[in-house]
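User: Sequence in, structure out. Go.
Assistant: Echoing your sequence, followed by the structure tokens.
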Amino acid sequence: MDPKGQATGESTEVVKQQATEAKSQFAAALRGASNEGAAAEMVIAQAINAVLGAGAVKTFDTSDDPHGLIKVGAGFTETTEKGGGLWYSSITVLLCVEFSGSIRAPGAVTMTDTTCPPPISGADPLYPEGTPDVVAHL
């Protein structure tokens, strides 16, 4: 492999690893917030802040991306059921996180790595966009 191609490949691998780490931090923050019984909107806000505050994200250059670095597909479902003579209501938060960006490297690498899963044929109607990365029950 030529030096330019090797540098581009190495840079791409670094970004892929950092995107994976940031996604992991997002999931951890989401689970932590949901365990505290926070409102659904607060859970998402805390999770996004955790990713934006992570050093891993800073490698990305989003100057050419009008939509920013992180795309979060979020959905809420609320169910109410009766049990033991009482009515219970629960909210389920579904999140799918997509990281995209570019880095300044030989060849101007552009990558979209940890994309949201594609829709699955005959999928559960609860997940019209595909299986979410994280499901939190509040």
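User: And one key feature?
Assistant: Helices lie at 3-35, 40-52.
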